[in-house]
Specification:
The complex is a heterodimer of chains A (181) and B (122). Chain A is an alpha+beta fold and 181 residues long. Helices cover 27% and strands 30% of the residues of chain A. Classes of the chains: A alpha+beta (181), B alpha/beta (122). The A-B interface holds A 1, 58-61, 63, 72, 75-76, 97, 99-101, 107-109, 144, 167-170 and B 94, 96-105, 108, 122.
Chain lengths: 181, 122
Amino acid sequence: MTGDRRYPEAASGPFEEPPLSFTDREDRKIEIRPYDGSTAAFEALVEMYTAFDPADRAQGIPPGKESRVRTWLEGILSEDCLNVIAWDGETVAGHSTLVPDGDDDYELAIFVLQAYQEAGIGTHLIESLLGYGATHGIHKVWLTVERWNHPAVSLYEKVGFETTGAESFELEMAIRLGETD
Amino acid sequence: MKVLLAFDGSEASVDALERTVERAADAGDELTVAITDPDPEADSREALAERAESLVADTELSVTVRHVEGQPGSELVAIAESEAFDEIVLGGNTTSPMGKISIDQTAEFVLLNSHITVTLVR
């Protein structure tokens, strides 16, 4: 994943910023907070990803075994990455992450646990991650998505991602984030 | 079994080569390493050929190294089919910073167009 990636001309945003809370469409109170680096939060994420339905894996992530989930999480929860978590009490309902790719590009991924899908959590989660990213000076964010994954593609389009590459199995999409004060 | 392995010097292809050599040595396969246009970050074709030969030097295996010009996907499929290979082996994965795996264009072409078995090493 190198080379000159295209980004939309127009900037998107501003987006809401974490922490925030809302009631989802199933009447659950969901709180979105940045990852605080605690062991409890790490273990709660491990729990979510080991419970993750293999049908919702994308391009090999999350990995299938707990040991590999831990190694993968250690990488994306490191200090140069930005992570936000959607909590239902002590349970992780969803997680979204920005991982640096070179100097000023970031790759985004978002995962919502099956029981929490289609409840409006993904929209808040991705918007709050983009808001959090913008306040950290991030302006260029990209992702890849399997082209048949229509719910995901619709979500990305709704927040401002545009398709920038459609040559291979996956679509590549990118967004430019506006300046914040 | 006659195995055709594509090698462009990328990390994924080195991994595929190492694992295929190991398997071929165990199974007594006949291995051909097809050097394709080197990955932008890899060495020259000559260095790739030397690397492939040094990897098999420690084994009982005899390996044929040949150079493939042009579009690697279609060339690999053509060689494999016209010369009665049993299997094409590819690295062909790249991993994004996030850890997402994507399939490069050579692998995509071979997977979709080959009439013989394709192994994608990951």
